[in-house]
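hey so i finally got around to running the thing on that chain from the lab meeting. sorry it took forever, my laptop kept dying and i had to restart like 3 times. anyway pasting the input first so we r on the same page abt which one it is
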Amino acid sequence: KILWTALSLFIFLVSSQIPLYGIATSKTSDPFYWMRVILASNRGTLMELGISPIITSGMVMQLLAGSKILEVDQSLKEDRILFQGAQKLFGMAITLG
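ok and heres what got predicted. didnt touch it at all, straight out
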């Protein structure tokens, strides 16, 4: 558990420092300055995405499965595992651009 916690913390801290491509930084006042100080984040970084990529990928995958574009049988464990893995992979693809 300690190793998992340390790894998660490391990923969070690295993601809080990686800038997003196309986000212009400005010197105007930042209303979330103190929150960023507490969470060790910078403005315009990867952590600014939040849970948006995973939610978006989940919605798109559900729409594709619901419209029968993707053939997924949710009663089969193998299909569920494959579908969830595809959702996570799609979420990473959305995050990385």
